[in-house]
């Protein structure tokens, strides 16, 4: 089965989505299916993140710069695929860092941020496909509360709403590579094997245009 995936022309796949969308879980499952090198964002390593959720204006810049440099460092691993592994899967793309920067930083902080990020962009490998897991705010908040992470307890619905709008705007105009926008409102890729199998089939067994919209709920209704 893996050999058939190898003929797809997709060697680097990134899964994206707002906090609570399930991008890390889907990336992990996809990497297992493909025997892929997995690159995950280690948000818990950021010593400023929990403080940012409580006092965003005070800790936004430090939180952002830590994430920027850590994301850059981790994505250098894309150049180093392991022997016998044909795929790389990550649960983020470097470009999404700007979503948070423009949402959270002041104008003066953005000037410094832009100077730093311009020097880093050139060293990043672009994915062959980005899978954007699109969810409504209610579903995102439900997932955040359900997993009950200590670091996320101060996240407000207002912040998730603003972040969701920023993500939707960004990915609706994303042109760096092929993108699949997946409607996740009524789907559970983690706990429903059929849902995940259908997603994998949609990735590898259907024609991928520059922008592809996938609504699994419609497929279920049709069946």
Description:
- This protein has a six-stranded parallel beta sheet with strand order 2-3-1-4-5-6, sandwiched between helices.
- The protein is globular, with a radius of gyration of 17 Å.
- The chain has one domain: Rossmann fold (3-Layer(aba) Sandwich), CATH 3.40.50.
- Helix 4 packs antiparallel against helix 5.
- The chain is α/β, with parallel strands linked by helices.
CATH superfamily: P-loop containing nucleotide triphosphate hydrolases
The CATH architecture is 3-Layer(aba) Sandwich
Q: Which strand order do you get reading across the main beta sheet?
A: 2-3-1-4-5-6
> Can you identify the CATH class?
Alpha Beta
How would you state the average pLDDT, rounded? 90
Shape: globular
Task: Specify the helix fraction band.
Answer: 40-55%
What is the H-and-E element order? HEHEHHEHHEHHEHEH
The portion of residues forming beta strands comes to 5-15%
Count of DSSP-assigned helices: 10
Q: Terminal Cα separation, in Å?
A: 24 Å
CATH topological fold name? Rossmann fold
Rg calculated over all Cα atoms: 17 Å
Low-confidence stretches: none
Structural class: alpha/beta
Largest sheet: 6 strands, parallel
Strand segment count: 6
- The number of domains is 1
Could you name the key traits of this structure?
alpha/beta, Rossmann fold, six-stranded parallel β-sheet, 10 helices
Give a nutshell description of this structure.
The protein is of the alpha/beta class and 223 residues long. The chain contains 10 helices and 6 strands.
């Amino acid at each position: 089965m893996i050999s058939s995936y190898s003929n797809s022309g997709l060697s680097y796949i990134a899964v994206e989505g707002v906090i609570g969308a399930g991008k890390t879980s889907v990336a992990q499952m996809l990497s297992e299916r493909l025997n892929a090198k997995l690159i995950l964002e280690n948000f818990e390593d950021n010593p400023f993140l929990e403080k940012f959720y409580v006092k965003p204006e005070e800790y936004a810049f430090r939180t952002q710069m830590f994430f920027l440099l850590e994301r850059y460092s981790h994505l250098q691993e894309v150049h180093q695929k392991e022997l016998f592994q044909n795929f790389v899967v990550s649960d983020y793309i470097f470009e999404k860092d700007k979503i948070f920067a423009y949402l959270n930083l002041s104008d003066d902080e953005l000037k410094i941020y832009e100077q730093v990020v311009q020097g880093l962009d050139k060293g990043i490998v672009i994915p062959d496909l980005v899978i954007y897991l699109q969810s409504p705010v209610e579903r995102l908040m439900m997932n955040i509360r359900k997993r009950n992470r200590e670091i996320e307890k101060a996240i407000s619905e207002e912040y998730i709403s603003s972040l969701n709008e920023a993500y939707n705007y960004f990915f609706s105009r994303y042109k760096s590579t092929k993108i699949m926008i997946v409607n996740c409102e009524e789907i559970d890729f983690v706990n429903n094997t059929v849902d995940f199998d259908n997603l994998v089939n949609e990735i590898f067994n259907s024609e991928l245009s520059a922008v592809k919209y996938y609504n699994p709920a419609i497929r279920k209704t049709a069946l």
